[in-house]
Fold this sequence. Notes:
This protein is 3% helix and 49% strand. By secondary structure, it is an all-beta fold.
Amino acid sequence: MIDLDCNSIFWAFGIKLTYYNLCDYQTSLHSVGTNELPAKLPAGFSYVMGLKVDVLSQGQIVKNLPNGSGIEMDFPLYKESRDKLTLLYWNDPDGDGKGEWAEFKQPLGKDKIYQTLSLKSTDEFYKLITSVSDPFNPTLTTDKTGIFILVKK
């Protein structure tokens, strides 16, 4: 369990995590291997690495991030081109194991992160636009916590 400041940056399993506006919350991070996936990956995708991110308030897991907050996850590219990688989220709102994989598709400039944190949208998974030389595949969620899997497509 890691106590968060209002804006915190941590490295875990080679992934840079930036927590925005999560003052007085905690996080727990766990690596997710291929044997721990909640379901098969969609056809055409192959596993690269996985992470389970939980955010807690006073010891209780928060399923949806509070309005105005978010988590940026910068996954390493592993010498792959950025267009061959994507991030999937296991979307299982009622926890019955019958969820589905959701892909981070919506582009967002890094300069727009702070104004996006408080927006409500049906798709709050963002693929951050970055320079070609950036060795990471940056993403942002402004709503969900849980299992995130970097995949090759």
